[in-house]
Amino acid sequence: MRECDELTLTVLVDNYIDMLMSNSPGITRQGMPEHFGARNGTPLAENGISFFLETSAGGRRTTILFDAGMSPIPLVHNARLLGIDLTKVDQVVLSHGHPDHFGGIYAALAEIGYRVPVLVHPSAFTPRLIQRPDVTLQYFNKQLTETDLVEAGGAVVALKDPLEIAPGVMTSGEIPTTVDFEEEVPVGRMSVRDGHVCVDPIEDYQTLIVNVKGVGLIVLDPCGHAGVVSSLDHAMKLAEVDAVHGVLGGFHLGHAGITQAKVDRTVDELVARGLSWVSPMHCSGFRTQRAVAERMPDAFRLMTVGTVVRFAA
């Protein structure tokens, strides 16, 4: 895997805002001055996630929008507030076909304003359902269709395999869950395939892997459906390296029914892999953030909406 010279990462959408947080080396935040002197408004948070990436390699810059949050308003509002020009986006990547990751895509494409590649696994369009004793959600991803993406300005790239989309930036492709305790129990999680209702394996899930010169691998794992540890191991295998510098995203450990044992075992494996940067976001849950903060205090970085991080040697 090739390298890029630097990565600037902006958190466009996440579940949290905290105006009391201050800047730190390599991290710029939306803090009290921006909130109290909010001439242009303050950032908006929601149950979703979206990253804006800017990479450079050999003097050439690439901009990537990775996921689009839950709804159109926060993504567009936050981009304008943070001075991000979405018309400069070179590529869009959707991690999977769940609404908290694609919900703002049509508004984003309208802002981009030209036919831009949208990389997405073909199974993201598969009809999905949740059927449990207390809730039934029928076809909850019906807003995501290939036809609508094309009509909105997306050039859909249906992709199952890993693909280098810029120097030092690669999609993971399908991720095998290789750590036993990360195997999900898909209670009530169903999909419709070839006319049959079956358990939904979420095989469309993918991460982004960025290899920064002098830093190492940065893995963006927006929702952790394959398991964050399995995702890290998959990234190392693709890049043919034996370490990861950092991981940011949703670790899928904040849901009801996730045991404390699973949270603890996940952090055990993160500690064992010697990461220098760990940012549990979105669906990770407070227990996971607390566990990482307590057991990996030098690696833990709390991300909030509007945070800008620069990775470079």
UniProtKB/TrEMBL annotation:
The residues covered by the Metallo-beta-lactamase domain are 59-238
Which parts of the chain span the membrane according to its record? none
Q: Which GO terms describe its molecular function?
A: transferase activity
Q: Check the record and name the Gene3D superfamilies matching this protein.
A: Ribonuclease Z/Hydroxyacylglutathione hydrolase-like
Instruction: Extract the CDD domains matched here.
Output: DHPS-like_MBL-fold (cd07713)
Q: InterPro entries of this UniProt entry?
A: DHPS-like_MBL-fold (IPR041712), Metallo-B-lactamas (IPR001279), Metallo-beta-lactamase_dom (IPR052926), RibonucZ/Hydroxyglut_hydro (IPR036866)
Record-given protein name = Dihydropteroate synthase
Q: Which organism is it from?
A: Mycolicibacterium agri (Mycobacterium agri)
